[in-house]
């Protein structure tokens, strides 16, 4: 089964980071979430209760990223994956990708970040 729901390029302002400047000034975090979900039932029924409502997932991610700061975006990603996997029993696997486009490190790049994949057990 290869069905997925994705939310790509969600942008939120937060205060996460290991450096004090990141906690004081904050920055934009770009979050992508991919959910492995069996969409066959929703495809047949045309009923939102037979799928995962991505508007609700967006609000969950927003609440976490705009909420209390974390030192590491790895921890932030874990919080997102845990929330999704604990709230949506239809989700079999959650992938979370977080990108900092302008972290306080010198150099030229499009962004730095992490990606985790967590199964819903």
Automatic annotation (TrEMBL):
<comment type="function">
    <text>Catalyzes the conversion of 7,8-dihydroneopterin to 6-hydroxymethyl-7,8-dihydropterin. Can also catalyze the epimerization of carbon 2' of dihydroneopterin to dihydromonapterin.</text>
</comment>
<dbReference type="GO" id="GO:0046656">
    <property type="term" value="P:folic acid biosynthetic process"/>
</dbReference>
<comment type="pathway">
    <text>Cofactor biosynthesis; tetrahydrofolate biosynthesis; 2-amino-4-hydroxy-6-hydroxymethyl-7,8-dihydropteridine diphosphate from 7,8-dihydroneopterin triphosphate: step 3/4.</text>
</comment>
<dbReference type="GO" id="GO:0046654">
    <property type="term" value="P:tetrahydrofolate biosynthetic process"/>
</dbReference>
<dbReference type="InterPro" id="IPR006157">
    <property type="entry name" value="FolB_dom"/>
</dbReference>
<keyword id="KW-0289">Folate biosynthesis</keyword>
<dbReference type="InterPro" id="IPR006156">
    <property type="entry name" value="Dihydroneopterin_aldolase"/>
</dbReference>
<protein>
    <recommendedName>
        <fullName>7,8-dihydroneopterin aldolase</fullName>
        <ecNumber>4.1.2.25</ecNumber>
    </recommendedName>
</protein>
<dbReference type="Pfam" id="PF02152">
    <property type="entry name" value="FolB"/>
</dbReference>
<comment type="similarity">
    <text>Belongs to the DHNA family.</text>
</comment>
<dbReference type="GO" id="GO:0005737">
    <property type="term" value="C:cytoplasm"/>
</dbReference>
<comment type="subunit">
    <text>Homooctamer. Four molecules assemble into a ring, and two rings come together to give a cylinder with a hole of at least 13 a diameter.</text>
</comment>
<keyword id="KW-0456">Lyase</keyword>
<dbReference type="InterPro" id="IPR043133">
    <property type="entry name" value="GTP-CH-I_C/QueF"/>
</dbReference>
<dbReference type="GO" id="GO:0004150">
    <property type="term" value="F:dihydroneopterin aldolase activity"/>
</dbReference>
<feature type="domain" description="Dihydroneopterin aldolase/epimerase">
    <location>
        <begin position="5"/>
        <end position="118"/>
    </location>
</feature>
